Sequence to fold (233 residues):
Amino acid sequence: MTQIVTLSFFRFAGPLARAWALTMMGGARWPLSRTRDIGFWKLCGSGTGEGFTPVPNTAVYAILATWPDIETARTRTNSGIFARYISRATEHWTVFLQTQTARGQWSGQEPFAPRATTAPGPLAALTRATIKPRILARFWGRVPNISARIGADSNVMFKIGIGEVPMLHQITFSIWPSEAAMAAFARTGPHADAIRAVRDEGWFSEELYARFAVHSDAGTWNGTSPLLRSEAA
Fold:
């Protein structure tokens, strides 16, 4: 079997739905932990704009999870606690991923199971870090430049910043049409400068970097599938 990683995004409209989603950051933990076949999982909020800010966005939330295979992933992300989110959201989108490479830890675990794959199609990159409190101001001072650089890159198909704990536990997730496009962004400009600072100055107390092949998706985001950008390219 090939492990599947899912990232499910939910958009909520109106104060009641948003209040429900906020309470579920605590309330969904028990039902997620009891979900059949689920492995590693995390509940995440997002930042305003495209998520790369320390100001919370009360409209967008995400659930990351691992599953033993694609059939299980598709079934479980449409039932149980996921179905409750879907029923209250105005829009939802799940992307199904196969891990190609992963290094580092997340909450003391190595959650992703890399498997060599040459499947054609887009790639996704995920970074997760626990930021040392003493460098918070410097970290968030870098983020706007990186966000602007991603937004100006015509190759990026999808991008968002999410996190488990505001300010301290941050996740970036992006989808690219090819390895070349992903590498070109990572090796130049503000992002490359930030990576050097991370290494030289030790910004993070825990970090994880993973790359995935995008298997498929379900639902829409902003009215369409972000993966259609690859098909149109």
